[in-house]
Amino acid sequence: MFINTVISYQINKKSSQLKKIFVVMFSILILTFVMNYTNYVYSENIQSSVPLNKTKLVYHLSSDDPWRATIALSDSNTMLKMGYNVTLLLSIEGVQLGVKDPHQQLGLDMLRNNVTDFIKSGGHVIVCKICLHIVGYNDSDIINGAVIGSPQTMANLLNKTTVVDY
User: Fold this and answer.
1) What are 59's strand-pairing partners?
2) Which end of the chain lies in a sparser environment, N or C, as judged by fewer CB atoms within 10 Å?
3) Per-residue pLDDT tens for 1-29?
4) SS3 content of the chain, % helix, strand, coil (to 5)
5) Among 99, 101, 155, which Cα is nearest to 127's?
6) Confidence class of residue 151 from pLDDT cuts 50, 70 and 90?
7) Are the C-beta atoms of 100 and 143 separated by less than 8 Å?
8) Rounded CA gap, 42 and 37, in Å?
9) Is CATH 3.40.1260.10 what the domain over 56-165 is classified as, yes or no?
């Protein structure tokens, strides 16, 4: 009798452990499904909510710091590929990325090439005229495809626009 009770207890104990394992595994499975479905629905909503080539984005880069410039260029290229109308506005030290020959000690040649590629991909680049002259460049020193930012150009650019500042 005692042995039967012990065996019955061990079987019930193992059965209880198996039930717990099953509940945990089933919960993980359900949670994984819900998370994947939520991500799918979220990504579909984002893609369908972006009106292609209608939302204007301006990435304002006022620094010649390579790290900041890399992030601004990466973000602007990503948004351009997603169908946004993207303009890179270069001001203050950022004008160095919009000229044919930036100051060599800054080491910006590779980033300047990325700006040129951005233009070739359909992006727009506007260089602040006053900033360009303060740094010692002329209007003719800007890279092909870039535009000098006049007050009228700036007013048109910033009208109903989302600006991201770097």
Assistant:
1) 88, 164
2) N
3) 555 554 555 556 666 666 666 555 555 55
4) 65, 15, 20
5) 99
6) confident
7) yes
8) 8
9) yes
